[in-house]
Amino acid sequence: MAHVSGEVEVMLQAMLRQLFQSVKEKITGAPSLECAEEILLHLEETDENFHNYEFVKYLRQYICNTLGSMIEEEIEKWTSDQNQGEEFGYDTLVQHVTKRTQESKEYKEMMHSLKNIMMIVVESMINKFEEDEMQSQERQEKIQKEKSNSYCTDNCSDSDSSFNQSYKFCQGKLQLILDQLDPGQPKEVRYEALQTLCSAPPSDVLNCENWTTLCEKLTVYLSDPDPVFSDRILKFYAQTFTLSPLHMTKEIYKSLAKYLELYFLSRENHIPTLTAGIDITNPNVIYLLKKVRLLNEYQKEAPSFWIRHPEKYMEEIVESTLSLLSVKHDQGHLVSQKILDPIYFLALVDTKAVWFKKWMHAYYSRTAVLRLIEKKYKSLITTAVQQCVQYFELCKTMKADEVLGRSKPCGNKQKTFYYSGQELQYIYFIHSLCLLGRLLIYTQGRKLFPIKLKNRKDSVSLADLLVLFTQLIYYSPSCPKMTSPGHLENYSPASMVTEILCILCDQKECAIECLYNNTVMEALLQPIHNLMKGTKAAPNCSETALIHVADILARIASVEEGLTLLLYGENMSSSEEKSPTGAHIIAQFSKKVLNEDISIFPGSEMFPAVKGAFTSVCRQIYGTCEGLQVLIPYSLHESIAKAWKKTSLLSERIPTPVQGSDSVSSKSQESQNIMAWEENLLDDLLNFAATPKGLQLLQRTGAINECVTFMFNQYTKELQINRHKKFGYGVLVTHVASTAAGAVALQSSGFINALLTELWANLECGRDDVRVTHPKSTPVDPIDRSCQKSFLALVNLLSYPAVYELVGNQGLPNKEEYSLREVPSRVIDIIDRLIILNSEAKIRSLFNYEQSHIFGLRDFIIDSLSVERNHVLVRINLIGGPMERILPPRILEKGDDPYPWPMFSSYPLPNCYLSDGVTRNADLKQDNDLGKLLLHFKMSDKQSEWIENCRRQFCKMMKAKPDIISGGALVELLEEFVLHLSENPSECYFPSVEYTATDANVKNESLSSVQQLGVKMTVRYGKFLNLLRDGAENDLTLVLKHCERFLKQQQASVKSSLLCLQGSYTGHDWFVSSLFIIMLGDKDKTFRFLQQFSRLLTSAFLWLPRLHISRYLPIDTIESGIHPVYFCSTHYIEMLLKAEVPLVFSAFHMSGFAPSQICLQWITQCFWNYLDWIEICHYIATCIFLGPDYQVYICIAIFKHLQQDILQHTQIQDLQVFLKEEALHGFRVSDYFEYMEILEQNYRPVLLRDMWNIRVQST
Q1: Which 8-state DSSP code applies to residue 276?
Q2: Which residues of 409-436 are buried (b: 16+ CB within 10 A; e: fewer)?
Q3: Whether residue 813 has a cis bond before it, omega within 30° of 0
């Protein structure tokens, strides 16, 4: 044993006393010794003064003196052992040194010595404590005697635990108390004994051998005829529940539950009957309810701590509870009267079964509860189901007012002291409903079904119960309107069932098993069926019931599995289903109520709410591509637009209320209701913009400006789209900005102005409240994190149609002077102030010149300054796919030469940026498979067989030898195949157009500046590929001029304010440029091919200028300015993406970006700069040979190829930048041919039907 000097011992004792005094409150509040130890072990984490305690300082110095030199040596040794170029983290060093120290001999000797010292000090402190205890024992007993005459007060809580109690509770003392508590003792003796028991520390009582006997006695004393004494016993129970550990409270709880069980089973007790009801002013009832409430309070608290104790404790509590609640009286001797069971009283104090909800929450307790219910207490579930069945039958057979009379808690506003039998049954029904609703959430709970009921031939299955729940919504009556809405909604059956079913909808596995089947869906929709037939929905059906059903349907429609059920029914592949699916019924009903073609609840104030609820369900459906396809025949956009216009006129006609008039409040309320309904309809219309085809329908309504303005107003309030959507307006804005009309609407609404103002504030102003104390750091990234949100919003916004509409035909302001307070409000102003900094005035007008200019370049050219400017110049001057061009890096490299790339500032482009690995002009006509395909062109089979044979041979080559299809061979394949198709009337979609112009006729016509720039880029790329010769620029110019004149012959006259509709196609014709290179620069062959190709349906989707203001399109399609590639191809790309690559689809929505916008960009520029030339050829050839739907399949294959990259860039929040900027590395059309063939088998009928119908006027 180590020797400790007296001076050191005294010092250490003082230090320990200081420590314990400081943490006294924490330790005394601990429920057990183990918890107290845990508090001390984690004191450093919880006590901010931990390092100021003298004892802690002593320990730190002791460790430093003993181990300090060894630790320093270990650190030096570890550091010197590392390689010079290798880096290691601080955490690694700490872990290594700590491990070596703990394994050392010095550490073990120190711990041994320290332990011995502390044992001596602690032993001395304990001895001194026992001496003090002996001396204070007499004083403490005197104090206790003085207190013995005072009784236990209402607040029985003991503020101290056994840690600091000087009163020691011995075995003999408890036995004495037990004797004194005997009913034969005088009242004063019993009261004093009870007071002594209440004053004793719970842990001391628990550790006595007589504890079990005490529990038994207390159970008996609960029935003591002396109300004061029995009440004090109950308060002892409450005190024990509050202050004692679980293994003690468990025994108290079991004794209370057992007492109640015996009390209800005993025939001697006067338990109320169902006929008589319950008078809660009766002393016996009051006392019984107190006991049940105390039991219930512990039931609700126990789950928060029982997981920290052995499972058997929890199981004993659960079993004692279930045993009590399963008590049923033998009614044989009572004839007509039914004695109330314990469950009725529990339902009174916990109507919504909160105790069961908490017990079922954790797997730990849920497993035990469900196991015991299944084995021994299934009757509890049976009676709950029975209650629901009985209430439903009551609703069916009785009138609404009679049912309400039997369920006064639903609507009775006055305080009552008496519950009739009918009211008790209703409360029990609500309790049963909540219990069953919670049970159905869990798999093991659902396995308890089917349930066999008395007096019922068939068992109640899971589906039967769900149908019963849905029927309760319709059949249970609405409570009177004069009652308190808050109280009413909490306990009305329809609200309770709706809440339960909505919770089930949120649990995927549960919803699939319970709700997503035809049986339940038919039950939900049956009253709507009846209403449309002109019959009554249900006996007590109200507007509120329909709104509840609509809420459930909207919740179902917001989940993929639920939407599928609504759209296609339970058996998607079954052809036997003749009845319309849920989506059709909902759409028909919504259309009728919107058009007011159906007479339900005439004159009802809530009728607009019914309309809004069901259009909200439709919104969930048509907000998806597949849902819109099903609902298009109902023209809901027209019905909603018509209702909005009508409501808008009403809101304008409402007179301004005159102050002092009696009708002020009513007029004000009417105005608010109309405005709310108008906004609801605008929101419904706006959600058509969630899909490309829906956006086209929205534009046809003429309400896009109002919808976008509404969206902007909601956006400024930072509101979500609706309660069923997880993300905001990002995807809607991206869709809207993909069209010219949408961009104009965004501009006129103030959305773009607000976005630019926010951007300017972030770049040039910063936050005024932090500037002085926290200067803004110089940004290292091209886009500072503070501007990231604004940057991504601009990337989403600035599609080519939007850019042309917003800045087309505008010049830069180029002012001589700019005010420092002048904030850009237009896109052209941003270009002027942040990008084209061509004057000192512009530079001087910027507070943060470098950062703002970097942002400007990055935003529009997706790049920054300095080294990155070189990257920009190379990128915009060099055309090619991922293997065809070499772009300089944007960051400096490590080493002696951080940037070995030459700066590009004048032509020609340095050769180091040109790839040498490009396969150029490969002509492999000698290949046997290619010879077979070419031979097919010479054979004179039946046209249909010939086409299929050619396509089959083409697929075979694309899978086996894709590189063959290039160069001269590709030219011959395309020419022969298109020639044959154009001569077959069944394959021709557009009529033949006579064209007689010659080169001389078009020579003097001019191309737009965009077309001229595109010509130069095309020729430069063609020469790089060795596919074009000198003079190709003039030939391509002539081809483009002929195409413009040829297509102009087929254009319609249209008056529009949109820039894109005022003249020729606004962009460059990349498809014609691609064909010109494929045809090796032969202008005659190129134009002849285009004339033949223009008759085919595929030309509408590959050659975008083909349908620019074309007379072959419906007039409303022309006026919308939306190309079929957008409202047809990209619509189906989004639809298939959701089904085939769901993770990618979700990533787009999380990023607030739309797949349709990037696909439109890829297709418009014919994948230039995204794919290598050979893949561009394969893209064009595949769509021509196999059909325009392959355009969709190729895009899906690309997304599948990019899945991991897309998920990664979604996480780092730059998905838009990645997709717009990066080439499609590693993608080859031929690699995904088999996958695309599967897509063709699954989706071709639907896609081709819609593509074929682009010429059809919308209905």
Answers
A1: T
A2: bbbbeeeeeebbbbbbbbbbbbbbbbbb
A3: no
DSSP type of residue 1079: T
pLDDT digits (tens, 9 = 90+) for 651-694: 776 665 555 555 545 667 778 888 889 999 999 999 999 999 99
Bridge partners of 266, per DSSP, are none
- 622: tokens are 């048509």
Is the distance from CB of 756 to CB of 827 less than 8 angstroms?
Answer: yes
Select from 377, 371, 475, 391 the least CA-distant residue to 432.
391
Give the pair of three-digit tokens for residue 438.
Answer: 């919670």
29 within 8 A of 161, measured Cβ to Cβ:
yes
What's the whole-model pTM score? 0.78
DSSP state of 540: T
CB distance 601 to 610 below 8 Å: yes
Residue 536: C-alpha distances to residues 342, 498, 530, 600 (Å) = 40, 21, 6, 9
Looking at the DSSP bridge assignments, the partners of residue 419 are 278
Alpha carbon distance 1163, 1195 (integer Å): 9
E strand or H helix that includes residue 279 = strand 278-279
* Interval 857-867 mean pLDDT: 52
- Name the strand (E) or helix (H) holding 417: none
Give every CB contact of residue 1245 below 8 A, 6+ residues apart in sequence: none
CB 880 within 8 A of CB 874: no
| 8 Å CB contact between 195 and 147 | yes
3-state secondary structure of 1051: strand
Dist CA 1166 CA 1153 (whole Å): 21
For 1226, counting Cβ atoms within 10 Å of its Cβ (0-12 exposed, 13-18 middle, 19+ buried), the class is exposed
278 DSSP assignment: E
Cis before 450? omega within 30: yes
Number of Cβ within a 10 Å radius of residue 42: 10
What is the phi/psi pair of residue 460, to 5°? Answer: -95, 110
Q: How far apart are the first and last CA of the chain?
A: 100
Query: Helices 704-716 and 751-760: crossing angle, nearest 10°?
Result: 30
Please state, in angstroms and as integers, the Cα–Cα distance from residue 252 to each residue in 294, 671, 1181, following that order. 11, 61, 83
Residue 170's contacts (CB-CB under 8 Å, 6 or more residues apart) are: 208
- The chain-wide mean pLDDT, for the chain, equals 83
Is 273 strand, coil or helix?
A: strand
Instruction: Specify the residue for token string 């005394």.
Output: 28
Contacts of 1061 (CB under 8 A, 6+ apart): 740, 1054, 1109, 1118, 1119, 1121
Beta carbons within 8 Å of 371's beta carbon, 6+ residues apart: none
Secondary element (H or E) of residue 419? strand 418-419
**Per-residue tokens: 619:** 């919104």
* CA-atom Rg of the chain in angstroms: 41
Task: Write the DSSP string, 793-836.
Answer: HHHHH--HHHHHHHHTT------S---TTPPP-SHHHHIIIII-
DSSP 848: S
Predicted local confidence at residue 331, as pLDDT: 56
Tokens 């679980």 belong to: 246
Question: pLDDT (tens digit, 9 = 90+) per residue, 18-29?
Answer: 888 888 777 776
Q: Are the CB atoms for 784 and 790 separated by under 8 Å? A: no
According to DSSP H, which parts of 831-908 are helical? 840-844, 849-861, 867-877
* Buried b / exposed e along 669-694 (16+ C-beta atoms within 10 A): ebbeebeebbebbbbbbbbbbbbbbb
| Helical segments of 244-310, H only | 246-265, 283-301
The tens digit of pLDDT for each residue in 71-128 reads 888 877 777 665 444 445 555 677 778 888 888 888 888 888 888 888 888 888 877 7
Residues 6+ apart with CB under 8 A from 1165: 1070
CB 561 within 8 A of CB 512: yes
